[in-house]
Input
Amino acid sequence: MPTAPAKSRCSTDSLNLTAIFLLKHARLYNISVKDQHTVPGKTAISVEEKIGEIFPYEGDIPEGFRLKEPVEQDEYLIDGRLRIWRGAMQEVLSPIFVRGPGGISQKAIGRYPLLTEREALEALDSAVAAYNNGRGIWPMMPVVDRIRHIEEFAARVRDKKREMVHLIMWEIGKSYQESEKEFDRAISYVGNTVNELKNLDLVSSRLMAEQGIIGQMRRSPLGVVLCMGPFNYPLNETFSTLIPALLMGNTVIFKPPKLGVLLHYPLLDIFRKSFPPGVINTVYGDGMRIITPLITSGKIDVLAFIGSSKVADMLKNQHPKRHRLRSVLGLEAKNSGIVLADADIESAVDECVTGSLLFNGQRCTALKILFVHTRVINRFLEKFVDAVDRLKVGMPWERDVTITPLPEPGKTEYLTELLEDARRHGAGIINREGGTVNRTFFYPAVVCPVNSEMRLYREEQFGPVVPVVPYDDIETPINYVIESSYGQQVSVFGNDAGTIAHLADVLVNQVCRVNINTLCQRGPDVFPFAGRKDSGEGTLSVSDALRVFSIRTIVATKDVEGNREMLRRIIEERKSNFSSADLVL
Ligand code: G3H
Output
């Protein structure tokens, strides 16, 4: 039997505004039936009951979504060989609990190798050897051939869709629909990146003659890339650095995120078949144990990392010659949604609900704090709470489900602490079941009025908690964005062109994307994705990423007859991969 869910209660001793709001809603709740979920074949049950019974019996899991048996990954890839690991293994627990005759338990879904410093350094040696100071098969290979390898890779990955989507769902609790979208987006990213490389190559194959010098510019690889993606978009965000790094001729060491490892297992043999030995190597295990020796070796040329700024700083500081290490980093964010007094409330609510709660708010681009003008806050909150309570909660295989169990250990406790802290400082949880916990499941909490004394004001909650700050003066949200440690994106909701234009002009110098009447998001992937301050380093998009993992290099000579003749022969007789006029179409 599930234990009784921990219940959070609203505070009525906060600001008048909230007190009025809460009272109003308390009345609404007494008469409302909107918060009842209907399960086919059963009579309507309350949200509280639904949360209490959120986890299924094994037999309730639809056949097509069951995990037949745990995934035992005892292999890792080094130097083009799948090696068998006989050492310590890490057990992987799904965020999903399953009920059975013996009680309820967290579903064990498999194990993966916990490699040591020794294997990490072997992976490094393999990547260094395959790069061979830029003289390896891969960095010397003509672009057209590298593209062929990547396209073969993508075709093989496509065949693994079902298996990988299934594992994304079980491993991180992402809804099956969202997991499928992530898979499709990752595959499109490959195709789009290849197209972009063809464009880049067309531009690069020109000769330039200037001030008596003639030359040809192309982009060359940088060396060995350490690629580490995040748990929330383990496949797509990994591909967004892995694919351009490979395409540009670098060799790679790939460490999957701590949560979201097994889903990459089907890729291992595909990597092996698709690339020359050593071009891609995989490592697994404790970061301190296996990543520290890689960085301190000084042999990593590029760090592609999506995670926390604390870890990014620690890694960068471990490099013996920091200036040599290129970094492309996607870090924390606390994107604000600013709802102006003249906003279209219906549409602002729709965007803010999706923006803050899609995949339980576990997107780096999620709206993590809302500033709402006091003239519209009651209307906004009423509709917002109503929309939140209509979100489907449940298991990730349920169609159209939004709120699912959270994969990070200790997450529900952390979110509960944030709520308690907010309550202590005068805020209330204004949706009735907000903050109700059942093991890894956390019912979304809308918290108001949030102020600067609360942890929720600054900490990136990365979960289903929506802090709302009422404001009268537009300088309040502007100053918040200015003073924030983060600078990724912001959303502004309003209807007056002059006000919006002025706000956008101010905000574009604080963040890297200002969204008007639209939630914050990374996509479409051709758009540049970057962050200021503690939110990132470098820019990713299908075109920018190719630049991040390469450097402009020129072969040049004095523009005199003898040199011109030699260049002509090199190009016409196709003697060089670099100085060539071959078009990649
Ligand atoms: O966690 C960050 C993801 O890249 C989110 O992507 O904002 O396009 O949904 P998105």
